[in-house]
Amino acid sequence: MEQRTLGRTGRPVSVVGLGTWQLGADWGEVEDKDAVAVLEAAVDAGVTFFDTADVYGDGRSESTIGAFLKDNPGLDVLVGTKMGRRVDQTPENYTLANFRQWIDRSRTNLGVDALDLVQLHCPPTAVYSSDEVYDALDTLVSDGVIRNYGVSVERTDEALEAIARGNTASVQIILNAFRLKPLDDVLPAARAAGVGIIARVPLASGLLSGKYTKDTAFAEDDHRTYNRNGAAFDVGETFSGVDYATGVEAAREFAGLVPDGVTTAQAALAWIIAQQGVSTVIPGARNPEQARTNAAAAGCTDLGAQLNTAVVDIYDRRFRDAVHPRW
Predict the structure, then answer these.
(1) What pLDDT was estimated at residue 278?
(2) What is the pTM of this model?
(3) Which of 20, 296, 302, 315 has the most CB atoms within 10 Å of its CB?
């Protein structure tokens, strides 16, 4: 699989990584053996980047990855984790003392002395402009407990603030065919600064798989049920913040543009990979077949020149007015 340098980490990562929120919680139950099978399938398909967080299953996702890597020594996989969502979301909680506690917990879960990449996990907006926060992160790099740091953001202005900081290695942001705003300013700024871009929610919580209908039901413990209106966290994390019924219709339209031999999900992932400045895209997977199919999107390079024009047209007609001003 094609490898791209992940910004200021200097490390190569596969253009299709693996998001592991599903392996922790909030997408319905996944048994331990099934979680390990997903990791195995991803690695076998060429994936070299895992994205996780300390809050996914309250550490379950990290621990699963840690055990997998311990059982498979020598794998060249960069693990990016995230921190900050296990406390009340106030800027005052983003301190060096708290960072040390959170990082120590993640190091234990992952079974490592130093974390490859730590990302602030969509903190309050004020955190992105705090000199004290970046000083604390620099201290942790100097101490040798983290190798690199980045941010995960909800909004493009937050991304631009972090990109302007000299030691930000990467920015994780929602980017997919239903969320185009990062193409305007964030990706060009990241390219100019040498900051990596991790594209998350690439399938709009599954909408861009083309498999859902307006009547599709999700489990009660699936965020696509309980967070559809933003009751638990930012609504932009669920279906990319778009109206579900409109998303189903748009996904059907998108699917009609996909060439033969390529799945709708693969086309959606390949479209993101083709955007200049994207380092890696991190779809999740609930089973090995999904992990293999997602990874195969890296080889779907000939989607036709009309697809990108059509994506912009769908966005302009169906989503721009509702989505563009918010994030």
Answers:
(1) 98
(2) 0.96
(3) 20
